[in-house]
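Our working data are protein records whose layout never changes between entries. Getting from the letters to the tokens is the skill we practise here. To make this concrete, we reproduce a full record directly below:
***
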Amino acid sequence: QVQLVESGGGLVQTGGSLRLSCAASGNIFSNNVMSWYRQAPGKQRELVATITSGASTNYADAVKGRFTISRDNAKNAVYLQMNSLKPEDTAVYYCNIRTFTILGSYDYWGQGTQVTVSS
């Protein structure tokens, strides 16, 4: 069973920064995409950023220029550097890995870490 463990959430002031970390363990296939999602109370889960095995990245428009996703393949880890935080960034942030095999794709999720930005 693939397991993802997230850390780095917390309470910050508007304009502050946080760095989220996610460490994966288990049988991780080399062909995969790691992502960060977030979900605020009463709202749908939304995609924040993705990074491929080849380190290609994509960001939601709401976080472009403020957030940076990166990965460390040796550690099977993915990170999200969040700068210039706004109250609307407040949410539970979830780490996701989607692996691709000849039999299909598989999704795994972390438990989530709370990010709260005060105004």
In short: The CA atoms of residues 9 and 99 lie 25 Å apart. The chain is about 0% helix and 60% strand. The longest strand covers residues 91-101.
